Amino acid sequence: MLTRLKSFATGGGALMVSALVALVLANSPTADAYHAVLHLPMGLSAGALSYVLPLEAWVNDGLMAIFFLLVGLEIRREMMEGQLASLQRAAAPAIAAFGGMVVPAAVFFLFAWGDAGAMRGWAVPVATDIAFSLAVLRVLGSRVPVGLRVFLTALAILDDLAAIVIIAVFYTDNLDVAALAAGGLVIAGLAVLNRTGVRALWPYMAGFVVLWACFARSGIHPTLAGVAVAFVVPMQEQDGHSPAHELEHWLTDVVALYVLPLFGLANAGLHFGVMSWKVLIQDPVLPGIFFGLAVGKPLGVFGFTWLGVKAGLTRLPAQLNNRLLLGAAVLCGIGFTMSLFIGHLAFAGDPRSTELKLSVFAASLVSALLGLVILGARRSPAP
Fold first, then answer.
1. Would the pLDDT of 23 be above 50?
2. What is the CATH number of the domain that holds 293?
3. Which domain holds residue 288?
4. I need a labelling partner for 312 at 20 to 30 A (CA). Which of 77, 199, 211, 318 fits?
5. Model-level pTM?
């Protein structure tokens, strides 16, 4: 667990750097070249089947499928043997995650109610960026107890699970039944391989690619292929080896050091010169996202956990107190990766897809700085 936390924290630093690079490129004389590269068409075409997409789409639909594969493996491991393996251990982060989903969505609805176009963005402030939040915790070093890191990780994983369900249910349109059925056959085939004891990873990875192609044709977002495959890769240990654990270990560094930074580079290029300040003031999406993340997230996470403790439904994990819980709740307002990803799905082709980045950036920055202040007030080293 600690190795994974350190890797994601390092990846969060790499993600920050890539996001800053994207901002510089998008607002410099190289802006045209930067956007030209992102829109460069790449892929394969054979008859009626065509997978030629801009480079930006390959990052968002292709590389992010690898990210979701890792998320799926982590969710499965935590459910089988980790912080979510029992009701008692999962209660606190589950209650916190539920509050951190419901309250930000409610805050967004307060701003966007009555605007049908704006309402599509209700899920943007729902998810927490695990890499960024753990990177902030790493800055504080020994002043943050291990229990807080584990709690925040479990909470963020549940957030990601909720985001996966939201994407599947609310951001899927125009289903191609034949392609979806083909995807179902691929999943069934991989499940049979698991049941018959096939432990080599390459058949599952080949199935992952085929399933991605089926989902891309079906109308379901292709990144969900990663989640589906994560639950059929063999997990049981044999001779000290678990294919699922080994794949997760390998993907942790790949995602943290390559996939997420490339995502940041492709999606964080906010060009301030084309922004309309009138839109920033009048559009309900932007304040809805900002206050959903910066205010709704900490209110939901802290408030629901506090109520759960008072009602006897759960108790704070060891080493945590209300101040540390508040600091973690504030860090949950860092929504960078998943917020931008869901925003891309909600407002594809809409000018809001560019301008919402400012709200995500601002809310994430405020949450990170305020979280540092609250958690950094701890003077004695944590055990």
1. yes
2. 1.20.1530.10
3. 2-173+243-376
4. 77
5. 0.81
